[in-house]
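FAQ: What does a multi-protein file look like?

Like this. Sequence, then tokens, then the next protein.
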Amino acid sequence: MPESPEVQILAEELDAALAGRTITDVDVIEFRVTKTRARPLTSLVGGKIARVTRHGKLIDLALDGEAGHLVVSLGRHGWARWADDGDDADDAGAATTAADEPPPPALVEITFDDGRTLLLTDAGDFVSLGGWIVDDPFEVPAVAKLGPDPAADEFSQADFDAATVGRRKQVKAVLQEQESLAGIGNAYSDEILHAAKVSPVGHAAALADDERERLYRVTVDEIRSAIDARRGIPIDKLKGAKVAAMRVHGLAGEPCPRCGDTIRDFTFGSTTAQYCPTCQTDGAVLPLREA
């Protein structure tokens, strides 16, 4: 799932490439992407991009004047890439990645006055990509509910405490709860908890003051340093860069980079997460149970 560091870099690249560009064509290949049926994505034609920003894990393409915003939720497997030079709507999916696998299919193609085409893609078994055309991005429920963002300069210990103090909810769940902290998902919550030496299944309410302060500092550092590390990486390479940077997430069976113990899996909701027993659970092995 795309998370705030990679989505931030996507927003920055799109802003640099598209600000001032006019949309000349929109091809909606999968109608279920459109979430505002009264304002179809094709109504974007003729609009000029003013800027591109991020809200949590969502992208906001703001148009000049009163033309509104295209807000894109990348969902579980959505992403964006530039169409290869010379590709058209019929053969854009024929390009291959470095691993010689077809890229995810484009569900929406947006062409600009410089001839470039942005492909909005989705690799899942169901359509998780979504697009809204709204006057204000906060009309989109997923944006309106967002809590404070650890990547923001103004994010404070008080913001973190408001999300965690007294919460009888697993710490990992709180980190991923978008209403509490915007932009963090399964992968970065694993990385944050490992770096902070905090159990993923302990309740936030049980954190001692020093643990909570350490977790705040680590959360901010992990997210902001990941953003800095991804700058300059082409958007089609960001997923690979994220995977390569992981220390525990997705690495069950590998040695912990801190203590050498074996990284373990455990089931968290509908997903699988990873942790180090020595560093995070006082040696206890969490049961790998069915969701």
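And here is the next protein:
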Amino acid sequence: MTVAPGHFHAALVQKRALYGIDPRTHVYAPLDDDTLAHLARITAFNNRRDHPTSWEVDLRAGADYLERFAREQPGNAVVLSGRNRPKIDLMRLAASNCLPVIADKPWIIEHSDFPKLDALFKEAELREVFMWDMLTERFEITNWLVREFARDADLFGSWQVGTPDEPALWMRSVHFLKKLVNGRPLVRPWWWFDPTVSGEAMADVGTHLADLSMWITAPDQAIDYATQIQMLAADRAPLVLTREQFGAATNLGAFPEELRPYVRGGNLHYAGNNTATYSLRGVHVKLETAWGFESPMGGDTHACVARGTKATITIRQQPSGRPEIFVTATDPAHHAEMLDRLRGRCSVLQRDFAGMSVSDLGTEAHVIIPDAWRASHEDHFAAVMDEFVRYFHAPRAIPPWERPNALARYYITTKAVELARQAS
């Protein structure tokens, strides 16, 4: 069952058919533009030339869609990806009806809603169901390799402590409003630009970075947000959009009344840029989230610097738009030693990633990732859905650190937004 699918990610989990998922899907939603856009995306998947899907949609739309959802329940799992602020209440409704949920980030966008997140997990535990986040960035091969290399003590050493000005882990994510989804121009709803509905950038796309910061620095370990995270600083700045740019992103000819509070001098000030600096188990981390109008490279970008006592691992976006991994010895005199260890590690990974190799660039090494192991952002949603189906059938296999780390990542994002507002 899909409830209130206002975001295109609700459709992307159905971009391809997966074993274990019935082709009949039930959509509970208001009969509005968001719902019609969702149905159009599912239709496009069914009608494409290569590997078409065969979804059957049972649409149950109307003002009473939530009452019907709670009462009828023709399915046994829920997909949520829409307006962000009410999402946590929809998750709690599903949990109270003993339904597992796969929900797109963010689950909460304001720190005042953090108690609801804690209550959600308690309800889910009571009902013996689980809540799953669409953490697609864990399936990006470059992020996965940074995690693998950083946990290799012979190659990476231990984590440097860093400082707020020179953190041991730095990540920057840049997203763009104008893009293609499933080969078609994406039309964004007006509420996307309302921070009270969709949240500021750090509360939204920053969820991925906050998750990766724990996933990389403390793999397979639970993080206690109350004792192991210390928020240090945060700031914010708007992305200024002209009326023409807003129209190109939304197909609307004017700013709606709901966005008037954010219009200044005839331009829309979108809450698209944030930073967060914090200490995570003693390791200094800095996250940067940014939005632009249109990408010069054709897609979103991601950058990362992870500093160890023996090596520094970097993800750099290339002019082609493709992210690549580079490794540098912390002490240049140990370059040859680092190169041997990196090649040894890649040799071990050949069992899963055949064709991976290392190129010596003199002062750093470039990890060559075969095209076969590259996947698009859209393809990552199938991987997340596959994971959800596995845990649906074996919920006790869910790692015990997932729940505390979910609390921790939303503590980081919402607390950062709160701190940035106080500082501005």
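Q: Is there any per-entry metadata?
A: Some entries carry free-text notes. For the entry above: The chain has a mean pLDDT of 95.
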